[in-house]
Each structure stands twice: as C-alpha cells, then as structure tokens.
Design brief:
The protein is mainly β. It has two helices and six strands.
Amino acid sequence: MISPVILFTLPVAFTVVEARWINSYIQRTVYDIWSNNEWKPNALVLNYPSKACSMMKLNRGEAFAKVFKQDASGGCLIPRGTYYVANQDPRMALFPKMPYGKYRCLFTNGLPWRKGCMACAYVEMDLIPK
C-alpha cells in the first residue's frame, strides 16, 4: 500500500458562485475499485455530514492556504471567485493508504436542505508504484 507522493500535473480551475462557502456544506466522496473486470462499489467512503470546509482545511492545510490564498488556521469562509489547482501534493493528513489499482471517485458537495449537489466531480485514476 502506498501514499501518493507525486504532484498533480493537470491544472484544474473551479469557480465558487455562491456568496461564500462555509461550514454548513456537506461532502461525500465515494471510491470504487476495479477488480476482476468490474467495478467494486464503495471501496472507500468519506462522508462529512457537516463542516466540510473545516475537514478540507484539516486534511489539506497547506494546499488549502495556497489555493484559496488565506491562512489555513483561520475561519472557514471561501469567497466567490475562480480558483486554480496545479502541481499540488495529493497527500492528505487523514486519508488512509490505498492499494495499487484503478479507482473511480465521485465527489459531491452541497447544502443539507437543498436537493442535488452543488459541486460534483467524477475522476478515474490509477495508483501505481513509483
């Protein structure tokens, strides 16, 4: 099992269109693994039913400060705007080590009282030895 240690080289831009992103948001990330020629669902599920912003800051402190250009030790308020992610170390403080293999990840983020997700991402990735 490994912890990823390479940098993300694909630049990503995302825009926060709500007035702000605060701790009332929920977040759910589901990883499926490819095994025996089929996807095995729910290999890893990260569910934050509240305080998604604080959990992101806790897991990604330095990267959070770099992307959102604010002190990671302060409050959790992300103003409207466009943010860019490139050449980031993918390691997270509270993330379990995962075995080599092919994964797909569905990331959803939203408010508990709203239907549907406000921010969603679907990613397929390969974890390979260095």
